[in-house]
Design brief:
This protein is mostly helical. It is built from 13 helices and four strands. It has one domain. A two-stranded antiparallel sheet has the order 1-2. It starts with a helix and ends with a helix.
Length: about 350
């Protein structure tokens, strides 16, 4: 079953991606070179359609196989949570397509992200129970749980969106996160839940051959928002998986936090675009796109594996602190060097 779902999501994404390239050019939904965009010629930004088809298609297949008795019956709780995840992915993907076509300002995007965060809460996809060092299992009250869930969902969507700056970067990191989430869910006995991050990883891997440098297609807002919501929701569906997400995606998360603060201080508006992302600064140092992407893959996979291998919660917190401190030090040094 795991192999079947993986292959289904991978093959669907692999086959739909060339179609998204053709349709992007036909409909004029393309990125032109210039400014922060370093590619040559017009590149379709409809690649999110392949990610959507692979992931959501595989998710619906799991529901169907469970309903017909070919796979394990899906419990009511898992059914509700996974329905919310697929529905939220579908809605944010549809909005992302609209954004790819109309090139909307940041505020409608934030409104859509807030809307799907509320949808997640409606389906009980919430950050309510966390296991903290020293304190152990902690159950948050509603006045903490709901704002924290909104912050987590919106933060993850924007993290992936801002990460999507180099060819293959966002899709590859999302694939690594999906695989680690799947292993983690399976180790916790979440046999059916594990199929969904596995499908997400497979969809990303089917898309990557066309998105690696030099990219022939971009995922656009539809793809980055889809991946962001999928990672946010899937990371909530198991105890301690948020810690895994923080370690896998720690570098881009710290980069986003740094950029928000720096842009607010310097420009008064953190939503303004610029070449101040960590991956752009590394490129200014002389590293190639492939080198930077490989570095991100390596560190995200290494810290993600630490989350799975380290059982002591305090050690996980230490690893998270070390990763955050090193990333902040690098960002500070690069920012100081650029001035």
């Amino acid at each position: 079953m795991y192999a079947a779902i993986f292959l289904f999501a991978f093959v669907v994404s692999l086959l739909v991606t060339p179609l998204s390239i053709k349709l992007g050019h036909r409909w004029g939904i393309v990125d032109h070179p210039g400014g922060r965009r370093m590619h040559g010629g017009e590149i379709s930004r409809l690649g999110g359609a392949a990610l959507f088809a692979g992931f959501v298609g595989a998710g619906l297949l799991v529901f169907a196989l469970s309903a017909f008795g070919i796979w394990l019956p899906m419990g009511a709780e898992d059914g509700k949570l996974l329905t919310g995840a697929l529905l939220g992915c579908s809605l944010i993907f549809a909005f992302g397509l609209w954004d790819d076509y109309r090139q909307l300002s940041p505020w409608p995007q934030f409104a859509a992200q807030f809307g799907v965060a509320l949808l997640a809460i409606a389906f009980d996809i919430i950050v309510e129970r966390v296991t903290l060092p020293v304190f152990g299992l902690t159950i948050f009250p509603g006045w903490i749980t709901y704002p924290l869930t909104v912050f987590w969902v919106m933060g993850m969507i924007n993290t992936v969106n801002w990460l999507d700056g180099l060819d293959g970067l966002a899709a590859g990191v999302a694939a690594i996160a999906g695989l680690l989430f799947a292993v983690h869910a399976y180790s916790l006995g979440q046999i059916t839940v594990a199929l969904f991050p596995l499908a997400l990883a497979a969809a990303c891997l089917g898309f990557l051959p066309f998105n690696l440098h030099p990219a022939r297609v971009f995922m656009g807002s539809s793809g980055s928002m889809l991946l962001g919501f999928a990672l946010a929701s899937l990371s909530i569906l198991a105890p301690a998986k948020v810690a895994t997400a923080l370690l896998v995606l720690g570098i881009p998360i710290v980069d986003v936090a740094w950029l928000v603060i720096q842009r607010w201080r310097q420009r008064g508006d953190p939503t303004t675009a610029g070449r101040d992302h960590l991956h752009y600064r590394l490129m200014d140092l002389g590293l190639s796109q492939r080198q930077i992407v490989t570095l991100y893959y390596t560190f995200c996979a290494a810290f993600g594996l630490l989350a799975l291998l380290i059982e002591v919660r305090l050690f996980k917190l230490v690893a998270l602190g070390m990763m955050g401190s090193l990333t902040l030090a690098l960002l500070w040094w690069l920012s100081r060097d650029s001035t």
